[in-house]
Specification:
Layout (H helix, E strand, L loop, with lengths): L9 H8 L2 H18 L23 E5 L12 E8 L2 E6 L3 E5 H4 L12 E4 L3 E11 L8 E4 L2 E3 L3 H9 L7 E10 L1 H9 L3 E5 L2 H4 L7 H16 L6
């Protein structure tokens, strides 16, 4: 898959690029990515999708990889779309945790030095790019709402405030890297049945057991498909 390298979070990316301890640990993130590349799923005939209508795509939607999606970067992934416009599509993989603690990535922040919760592998594009999502039942000033209850932390000041607030791991996730497409590319993949599309929600984004998120979502998809199949009159 040809990925569009889209640049957000430039301020935070600079922090990573100039922190030797973090830079060393980015090798671990790269090894995590490589380990996923070894997990191949045999290509098969694409499953029929919940809907082949690409108009369903947009910010706040969740992509669930079909069982037949054989690309090791995206096999068995659940992805939240955080950008969808003429410049391209950006998503964050929700169900791939690394072994990197947040303290090593955000250690330049006093309130981030003691965080032991782990960073997520957001995708294979630009492994030094940092993204952060926060769960909140109320509007966060200055933050970008991605879907109901989920906000993108978009500035250094917002990140500092989130860390100072000691947001719990179940309501604050940090991601390294992202997934990217050209709009037409993702729409074509949709038409070929590579992805199922769901509306985004905070419970899915901040799932307490991300390792089991894809099996849960794919079963939900297949159950819905089964319900929608026409009944044989015979």
């Amino acid at each position: 898959m040809s990925l569009a390298k889209l640049g957000f979070f430039a301020v935070l990316a600079t922090i990573v690029a100039h922190a030797p301890q973090v830079a060393n640990n980015l090798d671990l993130a790269n090894r995590v990515e490589a380990s996923y590349a070894e997990t191949q799923i045999s290509p098969a005939i694409p499953l029929p999708v919940q809907s082949k209508n690409p108009e369903l795509l947009g910010v706040g939607k969740i992509l669930v990889a079909s069982r037949s999606l054989g690309d090791p970067h995206f096999a068995q992934t659940v992805i939240l779309l955080v950008q969808y416009d003429a410049d391209g599509v950006v998503g964050l993989i929700l169900n791939r945790r690394t072994e990197l603690p947040v303290s090593l990535v955000l250690g330049d922040y006093k309130a981030g030095k003691d965080r032991s919760d782990t960073v997520y592998f957001g995708g294979p594009v630009d492994s030094q790019q940092i993204w952060a999502l926060r769960k909140s039942p109320t509007k966060l000033d200055g933050a970008t709402q991605i879907c109901h209850g989920v906000y993108q932390i978009a500035t250094k000041a917002q990140l500092e405030q989130t860390l100072t607030d000691r947001a719990a791991p179940k309501a604050f996730h940090v991601y390294l890297g992202d997934a990217g497409w050209h709009v037409d590319q993702l729409r074509k993949e949709m038409e070929l049945g590579a992805w199922f599309v769901f509306p985004g929600d905070a419970e899915t984004v901040f799932n307490s057991d991300p390792d089991f998120l894809w099996p849960q979502m794919i079963r939900k998809t297949e159950l819905q498909m089964a319900r929608n199949e026409p009944v044989d009159a015979n």
